[in-house]
């Protein structure tokens, strides 16, 4: 089953596709405020929400589609990661982007390439521990894209919460002149967070994967009932996950704005509950704010 897509995916006649830095610079010459949406393709409604938010704020919207080999580990799914450029063109055009930047690996990492961008601290647990080197690959390609596009704003989904935190720290530490905008997670009606990797699951498996979002909601409910102990909050989620035998848990954790676990939590809007697990051979991640907020216009947390 493919991930949800916007109802209309006809390519826009105004959408321009570029594949090289020279073409990109020429296409951006003389433009207004530029927004960038970096993606690895196989786009769905969550990506469309990023593009639409960029469209509302920027005069020129660039979407990059590049499956970045440097953020995949040796035993991860680089070779089978879903790819469908024709479909992506439809999603990007329908959501209102102006440019689609689709470079190949040799363009981004030419022969002799020898530089890696690494952010310490916030790139550690939980995700950095499970996927060593992953965030180095993310920050390296993101910084390259920021240098190539030179956007005023760059948009990321909150589903990859730690990635968003790592990019924000990199931008701050390196004085990159860009505003990093986090966009709330878009979900299926069932509660399942949209992800390109959902395409690996059958409809029935996707229904069972909603146990992850249900576990996160259980942690939220425990906090709303007055629980402040991190171990007790985590236990509330573990009890839900235990109901689904297919869950192979990587982590379920409550972290602060610096991605640190604390013994007790405070009523801080930046406190987040994160989960990662394998189900049916597919690694899925999700997160929610510990303190729920009203739904936004795209259907995720505002």
How is this structure best described in words?
Beta-alanine binds at residue 71. (R)-pantoate binds at residues 71, 163. Its EC number is 6.3.2.1. The protein has 302 residues and is α/β, with parallel strands linked by helices. The chain folds into two domains: 16-183, Rossmann fold, CATH 3.40.50.620; 196-289, Pantoate--beta-alanine Ligase, Chain: A,domain 2. It is built from ten helices and nine strands. It has helices at 21-28, 45-57, 85-95, 105-108, 127-130, 134-149, 161-173, 203-209, 211-224, 230-241; strands at residues 16-18, 34-39, 60-65, 99-101, 153-157, 179-183, 248-255, 272-279, 282-289. The strands form two sheets. A six-stranded parallel β-sheet has the order 1-4-3-2-5-6, sandwiched between helices. α3 (85-95) links the parallel β3 (60-65) and β4 (99-101). α9 (211-224) runs antiparallel to α10 (230-241). The longest helix is centred in the middle third of the chain and has 16 residues, at 134-149. Residues 294-302 have low confidence and may be disordered.
């Amino acid at each position: 089953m493919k991930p949800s897509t916007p109802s209309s995916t006809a390519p826009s006649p105004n959408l321009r596709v570029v594949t090289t830095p020279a073409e990109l610079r020429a296409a951006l010459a003389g433009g207004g405020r530029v927004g960038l949406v970096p993606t690895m393709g196989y786009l769905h409604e969550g990506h469309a929400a990023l593009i639409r938010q960029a469209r509302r704020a920027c005069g020129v919207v660039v979407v990059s589609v590049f499956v970045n080999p440097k953020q995949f580990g040796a035993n991860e799914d680089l070779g089978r990661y879903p790819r469908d450029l024709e479909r992506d063109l439809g999603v990007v055009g329908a959501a209102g982007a102006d440019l689609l930047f689709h470079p190949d690996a040799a363009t981004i990492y030419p022969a002799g390439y020898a530089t890696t961008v690494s952010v310490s601290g916030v790139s550690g647990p939980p995700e950095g521990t499970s996927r060593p080197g992953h965030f180095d690959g993310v920050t390296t390609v993101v910084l390259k894209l920021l240098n190539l596009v030179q956007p005023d704003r760059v948009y990321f989904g909150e589903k990859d919460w730690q990635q968003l935190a790592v990019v924000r720290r990199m931008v701050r530490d390196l004085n990159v002149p860009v505003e990093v905008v986090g966009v709330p997670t878009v979900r299926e009606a069932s509660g399942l967070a949209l992800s390109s990797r959902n395409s690996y699951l059958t409809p029935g498996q996707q229904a069972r994967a909603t146990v992850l979002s249900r576990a996160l909601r259980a942690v939220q409910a425990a906090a709303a009932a007055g629980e402040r102990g991190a171990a007790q909050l985590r236990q509330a989620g573990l009890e839900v996950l235990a109901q689904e035998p297919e869950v192979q848990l990587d982590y379920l954790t409550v972290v602060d704005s610096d991605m640190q676990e604390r013994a007790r939590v405070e009523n801080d809007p930046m406190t987040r509950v994160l989960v990662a697990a394998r189900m049916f051979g597919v690694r899925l991640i999700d997160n929610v704010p510990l303190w729920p907020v009203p739904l936004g216009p795209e259907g995720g947390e505002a």
